[in-house]
Amino acid sequence: MNDCYLGVDIGSISTKGVVIDSNHNVIASLYIWTEGNPVKAVNKLVNELKKKMPSNYQIKGIGTTGSARKLIGLLLDANIVKNEITAHAIGTLNYYPNVKTILEIGGQDSKIIMINNGIITDYAMNTLCAAGTGSFLSSQAKRLGIKIQEFSKYALKSKNPVKIAARCTVFAESDLIHKAQSGYQKEDIVAGLCRSVVLNYLNNVGKGKKITGPIVFQGGVSKNEGVVKYFKEILKEDIIVDKNSHLMGAIGIAILAKKYQTGKVYSLDINHIKFETKPFECRGCSNNCEVLRIFKNNKMIDAWGNRCNKYVKL
Question: Is residue 109 part of a domain?
Answer without folding.
Answer: yes
